[in-house]
Amino acid sequence: MADYRPALRDGVLLSEPLLHGTRTVHLVRHPGSGQSFEIGVREHFLLARMDGRRTLGDLGAAYAEEYGRRLGDANWRQLLALLGTKGLLADAPEPATAPPPDAARPANRLLRGSLPLVADADATAARLHRAVRPLLTARCVLPLLGLIAAMQLTLALHLGALLDGAATVLGHPVLLAAVFALLWLSTALHELAHGVVARHHGGTVSAIGLRWRLPMVIMYCTVDNYRFLATRWRRIQIAAAGAVMNALFLLPFFLWWLLAPASGTKDALAGLLFLGSLHAFTMLIPLPPLDGYTIVSQAAGATALATSSRAHLAATLRRDRTALAGYPRRARRVYAAYTALAATTVAALLAVLAALVHTLLTR
């Protein structure tokens, strides 16, 4: 076995190290089925070096130097059998249990389902990316972010007028339908922005379509290899792109609102700006399944952050020293910080909601 030169199948992707509970794991993605698997740090050490040039003897020597022990033949057989069963080795057959992509999709029903809108989502994302690529450079993005910040500051200083506008919109069905249609368009652009920025950073878009959970119908854009892109910063940009797009969508209406004389139109624009800004900020709330949660998870280098934080909090409240001892120091810091962030966020949301309801009812 020492002379065997294992190689991973072309297209197999490995993620960076991620916190998951008490462990540090890596994700492995099969290129054909799209299925992802978790592996430990030591397994990743070996897989990352399976390039078809190194023999098992070379890998074993590197492993022994790194971890202070050699793997026996039984260990190699177990690892290679697992990789072969998963179809991750270049000379292994495709796994028989891997379902085709369409078979895993649940059948559409009246109340819920999904519908692809394009045959080749990645080609569509590539065309959109070519059209807006000049706007994705720092020299364009930074001024746009500055305009968004100036817009939100101005709106915050005119919160009373925005609340009056929101009350006007909510009290007129025709205005409400028009604002709802514009916000739906903003949501569609939100999803496309995720795909375009992912394409900009080397991501692959697998699907663009409509998903309905009646009475709601929304667009979706699926990025296959999002979690395997090169750096956290790129993944954070992709996650934040949707909320930035929601804010950019409001800029023309903001200028219109600034220039419009006092009238019903100005009130309607104020309502749109309030509800649109609320929508954009909602996407950045650091709670699952929102984009803000994805941003925080990527910044922390963690997977299943909310679940792991709940388990850590439960062990802390029980004062279970045995369970807590299994958490590395970094994991304890990350989970405690996210627990505090989530609790603060929920308290702030409840306070803001109560203030908004009180204001709308008393104005």
In short:
With about 375 residues, this protein is an alpha+beta fold. The chain is about 60% helix and about 10% strand.
Q: Please tell me the overall pLDDT.
A: 92
Radius of gyration: 25 Å
The N- and C-terminal alpha carbons lie at a distance of 79 Å
Q: In which range does the helix fraction lie?
A: 55-70%
How would you describe the overall organization of this protein?
- GO terms for molecular function: peptidase activity.
- This is Site-2 protease family protein.
- The chain crosses the membrane at residues 136-159, 165-185, 236-257, 269-287, 335-361.
- The structure is a single chain.
- The chain is of the alpha+beta class and 363 residues long.
- Among the domains are: 13-102, Arc Repressor Mutant, subunit A; 134-206 and 223-301, no CATH class.
- It is built from 13 helices and 7 strands.
- Strand 6 (205-213) and strand 7 (216-223) form a beta hairpin.
- Helix 4 (121-132) packs across helix 7 (173-200), helix 6 (159-170) crosses helix 9 and helix 11 (305-318) crosses helix 13.
- The longest helix has 34 residues, at 329-362.
Architecture blueprint of SSEs:
Elements: E1 13-14, E2 18-20, E3 23-29, E4 36-40, H1 41-47, H2 56-67, H3 73-85, E5 112-116, H4 121-132, H5 138-157, H6 159-170, H7 173-200, E6 205-213, E7 216-223, H8 232-259, H9 264-283, H10 291-300, H11 305-318, H12 321-325, H13 329-362
Helix pairs in contact: 4-7, 5-8, 6-9, 7-8, 7-9, 8-9, 8-10, 11-13
